[in-house]
Amino acid sequence: MIDSLVRPARPAVPLDPSRRADHPVPDRGDRRGDGPLLGRALAAWSRPGRQTRAEPGTDTAPPTAPPQLLYAGTVDGTGVAVLYDGRRIARYTDGPGGDLDLGRADGADPTTAGAVVLHRRGTALRYLLAPWVDAAETRRIDQPDAAARPLEHPDGVTAATPGGGPHPRGRAAHPDRRPGRSAARQRQPDQSTALTLAANRAG
Question: Where are the domains of the chain?
């Protein structure tokens, strides 16, 4: 069982998305030092079970080496931890049994790795944005003349926004699909809202 995490040092300057590979993403969140929460997240990934859900085509096997911690914090009153093993993003949501959602990330690059779904409450989503993302906004696809609305994101966590629209990370941005549930019971996201990201440019 994997019982440790990789935790890169925090960079002294903003991350340049064009040189992402040169700067490991630092961990964030107000519970980065919460050993019990991180231990439960690692245990959930080390022993996939009934509480594990994965995007189609995503391997559910445990990581073979210590994964990297991307985020650990309390979101809408719930403990959440996001881990990365070089191929997959794992989102652990605390609760009875603990939920683990897996999504592929092996094809990600700076243009597609801007955000990952951090938490869902009803039809609203919160995203964890990459450190190189400087601005985020939402726009109504069905109202092309309406102005975009800025989306606040302190410490990389966005305010709640209606779910749906183009997913900025593809599969790994939306690891909420639950195979086996009937189509009638699956949540249908609001497809009229899109998330747009702008990256900073380090000098």
Answer: 17-199
